[in-house]
Design a protein that fits this description.
- With about 280 residues, the chain is α/β, with parallel strands linked by helices.
- The chain has one domain: Rossmann fold (3-Layer(aba) Sandwich).
- Helices cover about 45% and strands about 15% of the residues.
- It has an 8-stranded mixed sheet with strand order 3-4-2-5-1-6-7-8, with helices on both faces.
- Strand 6, helix 7 and strand 7 form a beta-alpha-beta unit.
- Helix 1 packs across helix 11, helix 5 crosses helix 12 and helix 7 packs parallel to helix 8.
- The mean pLDDT is about 90.
- It binds adenosine-5'-triphosphate and magnesium ion.
- Magnesium ion binds next to helix 1.
């Protein structure tokens, strides 16, 4: 592939293994931080059946991805204006069909995203929890995967499980860790070191630390006000950490390295399925 045809959009997936560790909170706030620094950002709510980015923002989408998939609208028509200029691509809430998309329907979703114009500088995907097909299909598209962990054994074990699957089954190599809701930076860094040590030893895969986000009580206020933490409590330690994570993601691996069309990042079986 020539450099001229390099894809303009850098795609970052936020995943975790275990649920409830802060993927939605972080993907939304990192998206806002990137947008505030002048980047065009699309936040894709990839928790397709239980989507809740729009809920956090107090938005009621008239159309969502399920309408686009059913041919009732284009995917561009589902986009919402989120905070700080972030565009939000809403999934569907409480929709079992969307939670159980077939491989060919997932491929259709990805093809529709490929057709979005103008292409944003960044697309962040909140993949939802677990290691199911939807999560791994979305995460494998990404230029890098941000794995969110909390300082608790189940979160660490599930994060390792996800990393192992993504690396061994799908060849993912660019994995950044965010330790969220940490008691303090030192504890957070220790959690990262433990995880990276295990990944290096058993998978031969060193992990990068994208950042440690401390526990922040103002997240409750931000959620109540349907705002990001960056505007609700811009000087909080967590907001500062989130801006640093966004800056680190910008400098660590600038640009996208995968094929231009996301559908070309899928395996041959899925691509054939879509034709
Ligand atoms: N650093 C933090 N300090 C305090 N509360 C936080 C922090 N990060 C996240 N939270 C809170 O933890 C809860 C879970 O966060 P969130 O919904 O983002 O997790 P999730 O990983 O997306 O969950 P799910 O797997 O269910 O989608 C939310 O109420 C959120 O506001
Ligand atoms: Mg979530």
């Amino acid at each position: 592939m020539s450099v001229a045809s390099a894809p303009p959009t850098r795609l970052i997936a936020f995943s975790s293994g275990k649920g409830g560790v802060g993927k939605t909170f972080l993907s939304l706030n990192v998206a806002a931080a990137l947008a505030m620094s002048g980047r065009s950002v699309l936040l894709f709510d990839g928790d397709l059946g239980l989507a809740n980015v729009h809920v956090l923002l107090g938005m009621q989408p008239k159309l969502d991805l399920s309408d686009a998939l059913a041919g009732r609208c284009t995917i561009g028509q589902t986009l919402l204006d989120g905070p700080s200029g972030v565009k939000v691509l809403p999934g569907a809430s409480g929709n079992r069909g969307m939670a159980e998309l077939t491989t060919s329907e997932m491929t259709q979703v990805i093809q529709a995203i490929d057709g979005l114009t103008p292409a944003p500088d960044y697309m962040l995907i909140d993949t939802g929890a677990g290691i199911g097909t939807q999560v791994t299909t979305l995460a494998r598209l990404a230029d890098s995967i941000v794995v969110v962990v909390r300082d608790e054994p189940a979160s660490l074990a599930d994060a390792y499980g996800l990393i192992k699957v993504m690396h061994q089954d799908f060849g993912s190599r660019n994995i950044d860790i965010v330790v969220n809701d940490a008691a303090d930076v030192k504890r957070g860094e220790a959690v990262y070191h433990r995880l990276s040590q295990v990944a290096t030893q058993f998978l031969g895969l060193p992990l990068t630390l994208a950042g440690v986000v401390p526990h922040e009580n103002a997240t409750v206020t931000a959620t109540r006000r349907r705002e990001t933490l960056l505007t609700a409590a811009p000087h909080s330690a967590a907001a500062i950490a989130i801006r640093q994570i966004a800056a680190r993601l910008e400098t660590s691996r600038a640009g996208s390295s995968g094929p231009r069309f996301l559908v070309d990042r899928l395996g041959p079986a899925e691509r054939t399925d879509a034709t």
